[in-house]
């Protein structure tokens, strides 16, 4: 294959060739990345982007891959997984985390410093970068309420600081989605509180999550956004689709808004099941179920 050998150019960075992304995604599905890099700091991320731009390699950024379906044909060019860029610091009432830091760990740092406001995210299994990108939220809270600023790398390779007004947060939306920026760090503004009470709230939310969500099986969280005036899970249940199996994928019997991988599912199984659900709900209720999960990569060239 005629391709710049980025792995040779950066011997100090872990870079794998033709690496199946199924090894990293929460659904345990997805085809290979031509190159899969694990930068450990901002400078490495910046250098990799500059090199890829120079060589005209497409670049895809992935966090914890908990809201992602990678098609079975995989991703051409360079994929960067940022989870090794994961420092978390805290001063005053703020917590600053690198993009690859676990959101759950970041909420634990806030709790340890008796800072309140981040409890809602105690069980969201994403990275900080993915959470800002998605404006992740749960139990009445969302990232927009705590995000103060973020350092981003623009597609042209410049580092910029985004302030609160520039995020353009909406329901599962931020300006990062519109400009293809890479989040490098994010700073969250919190409020002094009581460490034990914060922990108690986090424990309660996590218990509620474990009771309702199929955390014991691979999934990608809520597949669909909540349509106005409806509950996705209820629509799917009422259409008789809960428990439906499609290849190795199944509409979760515990929470109909989730699709779980029960038997070596492929991304194609997931995508066909998603399309089937959308078609049935449209036919029955004239409601369009828009995907919340991000779907990237290429179709497979041959079908199984
Ligand atoms: C069991 C389970 C429960 C979940 N519960 C919730 C919930 O309660 N609330 C909720 O909101 N979500 C939930 N999710 C979904 C998911 O955890 C969140 O959307 C999370 O914010 C995604 O972060 P990530 O790092 O995994 O992103 P990824 O899946 O890796 O990526 C998602 C998108 O963000 C982009 N991205 C990732 N990192 C960066 C970066 N540094 N810069 C720019 N773009 C980036 C990717 O390109 C991709 O388009 C759940 C998922 C699972 C599996």
Question: How would you describe the overall organization of this protein?
Answer:
- The protein is of the alpha+beta class and 304 residues long.
- The protein has 3 domains: 76 residues, Uridine Diphospho-n-acetylenolpyruvylglucosamine Reductase, domain 2 (2-Layer Sandwich), CATH 3.30.43; 125 residues, 2-Layer Sandwich (Uridine Diphospho-n-acetylenolpyruvylglucosamine Reductase, domain 3); 65 residues, Uridine Diphospho-n-acetylenolpyruvylglucosamine Reductase, domain 1 (Alpha-Beta Complex).
- Helix content is 27%, strand content 24%.
- It is built from 8 helices and 18 strands.
- The strands form 6 sheets. A 5-stranded antiparallel beta sheet has the order 6-7-13-11-12, with helices on one face. A 4-stranded mixed beta sheet has the order 1-2-5-3, with helices on one face. The chain has a 3-stranded antiparallel beta sheet with strand order 15-16-17.
- A hairpin with a 7-residue loop joins strand 16 and strand 17.
- The radius of gyration is 20 Å and the shape is globular.
- The site of flavin-adenine dinucleotide has 32 residues, from strand 3, helix 4, strand 9 and strand 13.
Q: What ligands are attached or bound here?
A: flavin-adenine dinucleotide
Q: Which second-level CATH architecture of the largest domain applies? A: 2-Layer Sandwich
Q: State the total count of DSSP E strands.
A: 18
- Multimeric state: single chain
Report the portion of residues in β strands: 15-25%
Structural class: alpha+beta
Overall spatial form: globular
What's the SSE pattern?
Answer: HEEHEEEEEHEHEEEEHEEHHEEEHE
The rounded distance between the terminal residues' Cα atoms is: 24 Å
Rounded mean pLDDT is 96
Query: Largest sheet at a glance?
Result: 5 strands, antiparallel
Pfam family, one: FAD_binding_4
Cofactor: FAD
GO molecular function: UDP-N-acetylmuramate dehydrogenase activity
Family: Belongs to the MurB family.
């Amino acid at each position: 294959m005629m391709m710049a050998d980025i792995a040779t150019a950066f011997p100090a960075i872990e870079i794998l060739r033709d690496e199946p992304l199924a090894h990293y995604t929460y659904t345990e599905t997805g085809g290979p990345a031509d190159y899969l890099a694990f930068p450990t700091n901002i400078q490495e991320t910046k250098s990799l982007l500059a090199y890829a731009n120079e060589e005209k390699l497409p670049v895809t950024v992935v966090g914890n891959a908990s809201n992602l379906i990678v098609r079975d044909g995989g991703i051409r060019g360079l994929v960067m997984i940022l989870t090794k860029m994961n420092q978390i610091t805290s001063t005053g009432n703020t917590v600053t985390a690198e993009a690859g830091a676990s959101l759950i760990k970041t909420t634990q740092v806030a709790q340890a410093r008796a800072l309140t406001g981040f409890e809602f995210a105690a069980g969201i299994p994403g990275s900080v970068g993915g959470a800002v990108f998605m404006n992740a939220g749960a139990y009445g809270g969302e990232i927009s309420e705590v995000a103060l600023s973020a350092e981003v790398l623009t597609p042209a390779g410049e580092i910029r600081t985004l302030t609160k007004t520039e995020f353009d947060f909406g329901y599962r939306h931020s300006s990062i989605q519109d400009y293809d920026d890479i989040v490098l760090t994010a700073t969250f503004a919190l409020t002094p509180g009581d460490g034990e009470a914060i922990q108690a709230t986090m424990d309660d939310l996590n218990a509620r999550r474990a009771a309702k969500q199929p955390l014991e099986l691979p999934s990608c969280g809520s597949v669909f956004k909540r349509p106005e005036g409806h509950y996705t899970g209820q629509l799917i249940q009422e259409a008789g689709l809960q428990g439906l199996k499609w290849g190795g994928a199944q509409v979760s019997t515990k929470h109909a808004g989730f699709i779980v991988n029960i038997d070596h599912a492929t991304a194609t199984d997931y995508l066909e099941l998603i399309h089937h659900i959308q078609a049935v709900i449209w036919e029955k209720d004239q409601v369009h179920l828009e995907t919340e999960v991000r779907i990237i990569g290429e179709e497979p060239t041959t079908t199984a």
